[in-house]
Amino acid sequence: GAVVSQHPSWVICKSGTSVKIECRSLDFQATTMFWYRQFPKQSLMLMATSNEGSKATYEQGVEKDKFLINHASLTLSTLTVTSAHPEDSSFYICSVRDRRQETQYFGPGTRLLVL
Amino acid sequence: AQSVTQLGSHVSVSEGALVLLRCNYSSSVPPYLFWYVQYPNQGLQLLLKYTSAATLVKGINGFEAEFKKSETSFHLTKPSAHMSDAAEYFCAVTSNTGNQFYFGTGTSLTVIP
Q: Whole-angstrom Cα distance, residue A66 to residue A1?
């Protein structure tokens, strides 16, 4: 199956700083990637759909100016949390859609802690 | 609209006992259904999926699930629980034309030695 990597796996930052998280599709070229957020003991919440070469599509209630998404190539999407605050502390997971297998494959996640 | 409901946020079974995790779906179009497992501080790993082929789907680690249209269910089972099965399990639904996966709230499985 597809392999998806994320970097970094965890990050601690001060309030007000920006953090960039990378998501890479290692097995195939992905025109579409997804970004999810997961709070402790809760399910995944879709934040946005990242489209290669075009603007991301954000879910209702997700601030696009705060969570910047760039999908510059067919294997890389980045999520930048700008001016991070403690309430942004969460587990961020990306996924890649494999249309041939009609499945999403998930990255290992990035745990963000904002102090 | 599509959604899934997972009954039971916590399930405990003894080692060697049957595992049954429940998932019911709602979909206005033929659904594609998935079970994912998540170990602590890790991403989601695909266990199995139903995409309109055989209704009984076998996955990894001895898990299987049966798609029952009449009951709108896709329950996950394993005949004999192992300690390593302790994890969070998520059921998800999508359609063959949709990008978005709709996840259930998850079921935490505890295996008692």
A: 33
- How far is Cα A33 from Cα A53, in angstroms, rounded to an integer? 12
Question: Rounded to 5 degrees, what are φ and ψ at B62?
Answer: 80, 5
Determine the pLDDT at residue A41: 77
User: Which residue of chain A has the CA closest to B106?
Assistant: A43
Q: How far is it, in rounded angstroms, from Cα A20 to Cα B77?
A: 39
**Cross-chain CB nearest to B106 (options A43, A91, A104):** A43
- The structure tokens listed for B60 are 């990894």
Determine how many CB atoms are found less than 10 A away from the CB of residue B80.
Answer: 12
- The answer to whether the beta carbons of residues A68 and A47 sit under 8 Å apart is no
Closest B-chain CA to A106: B44
**DSSP per-residue string spanning A65-92:** TTEEEEEEETTEEEEEE-S--GGG-EEE
Q: How confident is the model at residue B94 (pLDDT cuts 50, 70, 90)?
A: confident
| A80 in Cβ contact with A68 (< 8 Å) | yes
- Burial of B57 from C-beta contacts in 10 A (0-12 / 13-18 / 19+): buried
